[in-house]
Amino acid sequence: MIAVTTIEEVRQYVASWKKQGYTIGLVPTMGYLHEGHASLVDKAVEMCDKVVVSDFVNPTQFGPGEDLETYPRDFEMDCKLLEEHGADLVFHPEVDEMYLEDAATYVEILNDMPKQLCGKTRPIHFRGVCTVVSKLFNIVTPDKAFFGMKDAQQLSIICKMVRDMSYGIEIVGCPIIREDDGLAKSSRNTYLSPEERKAALVLSKAVKLGEGMARNGEKSCENILKAQVQLIEKEPLAKIDYVSAVDFNTLKQSQSVEEGTLFAMAVYIGKTRLIDNFLYKEGE
Ligand code: PAF
After folding, report:
1. Which residues of 260-274 are buried (b: 16+ CB within 10 A; e: fewer)?
2. Quick one: 222 and 272 in the same domain?
3. I need a surface site. Which of 180, 206, 224, 277 has the fewest CB within 10 A?
4. Cα of 112 to ligand 1 centre, how many Å?
């Protein structure tokens, strides 16, 4: 696997691959990779000839007081995982390679989508995500880009950005990968103490409860959300940020369970904010 730190090097490798007729897959990450990321790389290897992974903790998507400085980093471990999963190139830039000192341009969706769900407490987050992903699209010019369904709002917003900006890149959403006991894999799980790690299971339990109700024919989002909230509130270490039902494509609130209804939650376990969700699909 090739490891590079400059935009110019990425462009050179990608240009030579395109000349040879290869298709390019991009997996954007912030590093500290786990099996969730590995599943994105696997999917990209399956669907594309060459796979580029970006490994960059993007400062513009962190708000004041968030965990930018403490966000876990281990580039050596990341390279090992990427090599094992068949990535061709990892792009690991410094902040000043991605953002010029006088950078003043952002990519931002101006409807309500970035203000819903996580956007209520993270008002600049999706502007940072759209800006960096858009830069990565311009640098790598991939045919396909791969994102995890765990960050469902991010996936929905990126699909919207790609449609609005005519990127001509296929966005592939990949399923949530969970630990054996159900906890959704996340780089932030490392923040949890052993006691909090146990308490964090309340998220996946609430997801499972809601999913079961929906599959058994419950059509009222309110009833499902109520049951999820009741279950989460039984856990003393959990504090709900939001538990919501929205349409996946528009992120507008849903009243009744339909194809594409997204049940999403963010819950603090101690100081760590975790997210989880399920997407309702008919016949699954
Ligand atoms: O999902 C993430 O890890 C990040 O938000 C992304 C898409 C890599 C942008 O920094």
Report:
1. ebbbbbbbebeebbb
2. yes
3. 180
4. 20
283: confidence class by pLDDT, cuts 50, 70, 90? confident
Measured by CA distance, the residue closest to atom 7 of ligand 1 is: 28
Please tell me whether residues 37 and 151 are part of one structural domain: yes
How remote is the CA of residue 236 from the centroid of ligand 1, in Å?
Answer: 30
Q: Which residue's CA is the closest to the ligand 1 atom numbered 9?
A: 129
What is the mean predicted confidence (pLDDT) over 177-204? 97
Distance 154 CA to ligand 1 centre (A): 8
55 CB near ligand 1 (under 6 Å) = no
Which CATH number is 64's domain given? 3.40.50.620
| pTM of this structure | 0.97
Q: What is the mean pLDDT of residues 133-141?
A: 99
In this predicted structure, what is the pLDDT of residue 5? 99
Q: Is the CB of 132 under 6 A from ligand 1?
A: yes
Percent of the chain with pLDDT over 90: 99
* CB 110, CB 127: distance < 8 Å: no
Number of domains in the chain: 2
Pocket lining: 58 vs ligand 1, CB cutoff 6 Å: yes
d(C-alpha 191, C-alpha 169), whole Å: 34
Using the predicted structure, report yes or no on whether residue 18 has a pLDDT greater than 90. yes
| CATH value at residue 264 | 3.30.1300.10
- pLDDT at position 207 is 98
Torsion 271-278-242-217 (CA) sign: negative
